[in-house]
Amino acid sequence: MQDLRTTKYPRMNRIIILLLVVFTTVLSSCYYDAADLLYPSAGTCDTATNVSYNQTIVPLFQQQCYSCHNNTSTGGGVLMGSYTNDKTIAVNGKLYGSVTHASGYSAMPKGMAKLNNCQLSAIKKWIDAGAPNN
């Protein structure tokens, strides 16, 4: 004897399955992704206050510059890693020309993305203040 579910109501089974698939698809597409959780900000850019060599510039240079420009590896003949050396390239224009990828300068950091606007702004503000050791 044939099963009544498949012979008497085959169309009904297809409709129920189709409705379940549609319902599941709609329900799963309603998932909400919080953009602030998916793409956390890198922090705020605070260059409105005084930019400090020790608190702002040195950590930036440690992250972006010192691995190639140090006592054991003077990339491009540029030595960094001390206030005196860092100030020298800041005052002579080499630093800002390189990190902004200005014409006539070797783009830095070499082989990496250009520094973001906040980092460039901090460097510029430090240089414009006379590159103080603060």
UniProtKB/TrEMBL annotation:
GO terms for molecular function: electron transfer activity; heme binding. It comes from the Bacteria. This is Cytochrome c domain-containing protein. It comes from Lacibacter cauensis.
